[in-house]
Each structure stands twice: as structure tokens, then as C-alpha cells.
Amino acid sequence: MSNLDTVLKDLVIANRILAKEEVVDAYGHISIRNPDNPKHFFLARSVAPELVERDDIVELGLDGQPVREEKRALYLERFIHAAIYEARPDIQAVVHAHAEDILPFGIAQATPLRPVIHSGSFIGANVPVWDIADKFGDTNLLVTNMAQGRDLAKCLANNNVALMRGHGFASAARSLIEVVRLSVYLPRNARALMRAKMLGGKIKYLSKGEIDARNKGYSPYSTETWRAWEYWANKAGIGHLLTRPDGRPVHTGKHDHKHDH
Amino acid sequence: MSNLDTVLKDLVIANRILAKEEVVDAYGHISIRNPDNPKHFFLARSVAPELVERDDIVELGLDGQPVREEKRALYLERFIHAAIYEARPDIQAVVHAHAEDILPFGIAQATPLRPVIHSGSFIGANVPVWDIADKFGDTNLLVTNMAQGRDLAKCLANNNVALMRGHGFASAARSLIEVVRLSVYLPRNARALMRAKMLGGKIKYLSKGEIDARNKGYSPYSTETWRAWEYWANKAGIGHLLTRPDGRPVHTGKHDHKHDH
Amino acid sequence: MSNLDTVLKDLVIANRILAKEEVVDAYGHISIRNPDNPKHFFLARSVAPELVERDDIVELGLDGQPVREEKRALYLERFIHAAIYEARPDIQAVVHAHAEDILPFGIAQATPLRPVIHSGSFIGANVPVWDIADKFGDTNLLVTNMAQGRDLAKCLANNNVALMRGHGFASAARSLIEVVRLSVYLPRNARALMRAKMLGGKIKYLSKGEIDARNKGYSPYSTETWRAWEYWANKAGIGHLLTRPDGRPVHTGKHDHKHDH
Amino acid sequence: MSNLDTVLKDLVIANRILAKEEVVDAYGHISIRNPDNPKHFFLARSVAPELVERDDIVELGLDGQPVREEKRALYLERFIHAAIYEARPDIQAVVHAHAEDILPFGIAQATPLRPVIHSGSFIGANVPVWDIADKFGDTNLLVTNMAQGRDLAKCLANNNVALMRGHGFASAARSLIEVVRLSVYLPRNARALMRAKMLGGKIKYLSKGEIDARNKGYSPYSTETWRAWEYWANKAGIGHLLTRPDGRPVHTGKHDHKHDH
Fold it and tell me: What ipTM, to 2 d.p.?
């Protein structure tokens, strides 16, 4: 149970980081698969990520429905998460967001969104674009049922990110810390690629080998990954909830000088 | 009378949201038709939206003039509001603003401003551009009388937004919460379209069917619409004035854990 | 003397406004001609505008030198101000700044910077570009003597603004409040024009008649001009120094409800 | 020893300035050669620059390894600093950062990054682009050993800045204050050049003579250079650590009126 406690605290931290880094605003959400039951996942009820507290977190099944009685309103698009968990046993965390900088790539699809900066490697070599209209015709563009969720998951396939035309993106990773990292760097990579296009001339993308080299060695708690997580958590004012995997004291920001790591 | 009290509180909230979201700055304004008298509307006196308080609100007639004696200076461009209320019995709220991101579309009219992102659907399928010079020749570009206001209202026709060349925009909706929402998302949609153009290639706009699907079912208090209103109000520091239509307690931000909706 | 007291307070306010609105940063300055002696002007000593206090203000002659003994370091480029006051008896206030958004127009001169938005009318119909290299060859690009200042003033001629290639701009107006307003709107107009160019197609500039209509009637204290000055002063946290010309109480911002104007 | 005390305080200030000015974020670092031993340099341990305190600073040798026993994690890319100090006896301070605005120039190399604004002169006439793949094939793009560091230093040659393709930049200068200044202005120059390109037409770069004129006379403590350092230090909230070279009191920001310089 103590592991679950950490998982829920990390989910609160993750919500606050995505809000502070402007990946999400009033809308957008992040979930984590239940480490004790792969058929369930945790997602906040319908509230802005910036305001998510522990009590807001709801446990849902792979059909997108809450596993216990739940009176409070849920995110309409929880089916994005459910369908990706269903299709991808390897995935432990999912983000859906509308981050502005990636929108053009879903609208003007002539320019595929690919890594051009080293921190963008986490988005993966291929970022497909999903258009809900292809299968469902005219809709309100929201993924509000499992059929739509599954179609999105099918487009995502084995990739890390799928852009959702005129809407946003869905990202998926092997850990919470990695899905947050990739979601924070996705807009940054998009900005760099857009500006490179504006400069004109040949663009040097990261090679497949470079993307693989950066992805090698599964370690969500490497020093460099932890440093960003800790930095972002403190920046979001939620550093006090941090849990280091090795039990060492946590650095809670510039007012704490007793750090040792 | 209690409904009027809520209406005036909501107008204060709306002013503060538009200021915080940078739709307006020192200039720009928002009004609401008097629910008890369609020949009148409420608009602040001439003060920056960020500073609007209840006492600043003035009641005007459809000729743009105050219905009671009023010594304080009024917005020069109140005729935008008056003329739109006069021409459009369906409209209950109006915004005029200079939001930077929409200005290029009024200046370089070769690219019509149309919805490209789902939250941009609220601007409507068609956004006409009004040029005061067409009928009035050289002016100071401000709408300072009913003749100019009516010409703008005629250009707006049955649409939700009209761009005002070299000036800003006027938006109109069936409720205050909806005109705020569309005015906040209008610049965001403009940015997405501009960036899509910069990427180059074919642009996928929202279809008429998608715009209609998102507009279907008049509900300014749906959970999703309310969530943005509440989120923006709290962000603007005015959450304490919020009134939920169903009487349930209001979430006043991250320091309040007693929310239940 | 009380008029001089107001003049110096206004100069402090103006410095803070330009800093807050990001027209200036560590560098940049604003001056006002001495209303009691046209051969002198007031300019702060060499300190960031954000930090300017009353005691920092120095009185200089039209040769750019202090009129009293002055031990503290002065702005190297005070000669911009001196030369413009010397050449233009109509000018009462001058700004020099490096505001980022105007820099491209001095670097890529194929696109003249002209008013495209109504608030941009104050920059005037023509904005010449001055290149120090034309007359002085290779320099450090700073205007550090009267010869350079006079060459810049000659380029400025009767216009309101001259861009300084690879450096920034110099603006001049009939009053402090007007030079601040034009300097704040200059970058905004530059952004709108740049974005209009990026959209492509024909650009509609303000006509000469529109520029003139907006400039007609010299009134630095019209309600609309005052509203921006007051709004910006409060935003910069310096509202307590405001002086209304008509003696009415000053609105010091959202914490003051006792306003009546 | 008192000089060393100042050196370490300045290094803390420099870290905070680069963070506040958004040249660095969670990643990025700055070092200074030990004035008492040119074979050593000072660099913080692996922590975000925004959080660097005196105790975080570690002394390293020109092999990138700590000179004393050090348990705490070090920056993986400290070899950038070591190799540049090894190759360039004239260099006393080095920065490595990922500042967004320069990234496009390393990705789309058809447009060389050259000074176009006067404050950009400090980046030097030539900014080479280093691509780690040229010599090392597919890597994770990080400079994590001396071989890679030396290859980067070779590309840098006698220049002030080298862009690192898809990664960021490395800058080097004769003093800490100068490397901070050039690193802060590098992104600003990049933005101006990108926008000039977007406007189209011929671009006027700074001439070699202008760059030299601005670089003439080595004086990291000239009034203008000091003014920016002091301004940035205060802006970063670290002004209390400032040391003026002439012993005069330090201006600690807008709450301190006892300044005299």
C-alpha cells in the first residue's frame, strides 16, 4: 500500500508539473496504471490539473468507467487513457493535452513532427496524426467513447505520441516520470522544428540511432531524469510531495540547503 | 432582483477574466443585456477591465446612452455594443477587444480567419472583416456613434465575430459565459492558424458539421464550460464572486478543499 | 516650482512604465525638456529605468552635458536626446530604446515600418531608418557625441520615430505622456505588421487621413490617453506618484475603491 | 583567498542570472577558471543553475574530474568546460546552455548565426556549428568525455560561441561577466536575425569593423557592462552577493536609495 501512496502523490505532482510547464491549462489530463492491477488506472475527476489534489483521484477500468461509485463529474475524454492502456500492456502512464505549439503540425500535416533537438528524442522517431473525422465523420472532436479511443490507440500503435488533428496530442510511456518528460519536451521540439522551417534550407533531424541511444537503458530515476522531475516539481510548488526511490532526503527548492545527492 | 445581482457579479468576473487572459488590456470591454429589459444593457464606465468593480457598471440604452444621469466618462465605443444588441435580439453579451493575435487577419485579409482547433469552433464558420473606411472614409478608426456601430453590426450579420481592420474585434453570444469563452479562444485559434500557414502545405479547417456538432445543445453551464469559467475566474483572483446555477458550493481555488461537483 | 515637481515625478513614472511594458530593459532612457528653460532637459543618470528615482534625475544642456557639477556616470547616449531637442523646438520628450520587436525592421529594411493598427498611428506615417555607418563608418553603434546625435536628428527630421539600424529606436513627441504612448505601441505595431507579412497577401496600412484624424487635437490629457497612462502607471507599481491635471483624486489601482472620475 | 571568495560568489550570481534570463533552465551550466591555478576550474555539482549555492561548487581539473574526493553527482557534460579551458589559455569562463532561440540555427544550418544587433557583437563574427555525429556517429548527443569535448573545442577554435547541433551552445570568454553577457545576448541576436529573415529582403549584419570596435578595450567592469551585471543580479534576486571592483557600495535594487556611482 505504501507504493500506492507514492503513486498517487506522484500523480498529483505530475498534474501540477504539466500545468506549470503550460503543457495543460484548464483542460488536459494525466493518468497512471494501477501498479497492483493492470486492468485499472488512476485519473483525476473533472478538474483543472493545476488544482488536482489526492482526493480528486479516481480509479477507472479499461472501459473508462469508475470502479467504485462516483458521483463527481469525470473527464469526458478518459476513454483516451482507457483505450491506450487496453492496447498497450507496456504503457504505465498517459497524457492528453492541447499544448499550443504542437497544434500546427496536426493542422498542416505536410511537415511531420520529428525530433530535431536532443530532448525531443523522447517523442520517438515517428509521431502519427490521428483525425477523428476519418472514421467518425463530423463530431465535436472529443474522444468520448471507447470506439473513438480505440481508433486513436490504433493510430498511436507502438509510438510514444499521436497528434490529434485540430485538438492536441496523446502521449504514452513506461513510467509517469517519462510521460511527463516527453510531454514537456514535445512542444519545445515543435517550436524548434517550426523555427528551423522558417529559417529555411535543409533540416537535420535526429537519426534513428541517436533516438535509440537516448532511449537505451530504462531508467526513470537516472540522475538527469530525476533532476528535471525534482526541478519541475519545485517550480510547480509541489516539491514537498517528492519521494526519492532511494529514500535519500528530497531537495525542496532554494530555501533548503540540507540537500545531499 | 437576485438574478440581477448575479448578472452584475458575473459581469465583473467576465471583465477580470478577459484582462487576465490578455484578451483586453487598458482598452476593451464586455457588456451584458439586461435580462429584465432587452432595450438596455450593462457596461462598465471608462476604466480598464482589470479594475472594474460593481460600482463601475452603468446601464445603457440601445442608443448607447446611459439611462440615468451619469457624470463619469463612458467608453467611446459603447456604440459597438448598442448596435449589436439592436440588430441581434438573440445576443445577450458582447465583447470588443484589441487582442494582438487576431490583428494580422484584419490587416492581411487574404487569409480568412476560420476555426482550425476544436476550441476555436465557437468563433463560428465565418469571421467577416469590417473596414470602417469603406463607408466612412478617413476616421480615427473608433466606433463612436450609432451610424458606425450599425455598419459594423450589419457586417457581423448572424456571425459570432467580426474583425475590425487595424483595430480589433467584436464578438457576440447568447450568454456572458459563451462570449467570454469564444473571445478567449479566438486569439488561440488565430495563433494556430498562423503557425499552420508558416509550416506550409494544405490546412485542415474544422468542417461545418464539426462546428455545428460543437455548438449543438445550448448549455452555458455544461460541466466543461463551467470548468473553464471557474478556472479562469480563480486564475483572475475573482473566484469569490462565482455563483453556481445549481446552488452547489463554489470551488475557490487550490486552497479550498471543500469542493464537491 | 510645483510644475517642475510634477514634471520630475512624471519622468520617474515614465521610466517605470517603459520598463514594465518592456520597451526598455537594463538599457534605454527617456527625457523631458525643462518647461522653464528650453535649452535644458531632464534625464536620469546611468541607471536601469526600472530603478530610476527622483534623485537620479540630472539636468543637461543641449550639448548633452550636465548643467551642474555631476560626479555620477551619465548615459553614454544622452546625445540622442540633446540633438533632437536642439533640432526640434516642438519636441518636449524623447525616448531611446532597444525594444526587440522593432529591430528586424532596421536590419531588413525592405519592409518599411508603417502604422497598421490604430494605436500604431502615433508612430507617424513615415519611420526612417538611420544607419550610423553611412556617415561614421565602423563604430560601436552607440551615439556618443553630438556629431552622431545631430546626424540621427537629421534623419529623424519631422517624424516621430527613427529606427537605428542594429540598435533600437529614438522617438520624440510634444509631451511625455505621448512619447511614452507611442513608444509602447511602436513594438505592438511592429509585431502586427510582421505577422501580417507572414500571413501573406496585400497589407492594408493606415491611410494618411487616418493617421491625421487620430493625431488631430493636441490633448495629452484626453480621457483615453489618461486612462492608458494611469493604467500603465498602476501596472508598474508607481501609481502613487500620479498627478491628474484637473486636481481630481487619482485612482491608484485595484485596491482603491474610492475613485471618482 | 579573498579574491577566491569573490570568484565563487560571482559564480553563484552568474548561475542565477543565466537562470532568470532563461538562458538555462533545469539544464545548462557555467564555470570559471581558478584564478590561482589555470589547470583547475570551478563548476557546480549536478543541480539546476537556479538553485546553485556556494556549497554546490566543485573544483575540477582539465580532465573534467574533481580534484578532491566528491561523492555528489557532477554534470555529465563538464567535459565541455574542461576541453575548452585546455584548448584556450585565454578563456576564463565557459557556459553551456540549451537556450531555445539558438536551436534553429544548429538545425537548419543554411543561415549562419551572425551579429545583427549591437549587443550581439559579443558573440563574435563567426559562430561555427558543431555536429557530434561527424566524428562520433550515433550518440545520445551529450558531451560526456574528453574526446568529444576536445572535438567541440577544436570546432570552437578561436571563436566565442559554437552551436551544438540539435542541442544548444557552448560559449567562452575572458571573464565571467563577459561570458554571461554574451550568453544572454546570443538568443536575443538569434531572435532578431530570425525575424529579419521572416521580413525578407537584404539583411544588414554588423561589419567586422563594428564587431571589433565593440570588443576593443578589455574592460569587464566598464560602467555599461557593470550596469547590466548589477541589473541582472538584482533581477535574479541575488544582488546582495554583488562585489564592486572599486569597493564602492553596491546598489541592491529599488528598495535601496543609498547608491552613489
Answer: 0.91
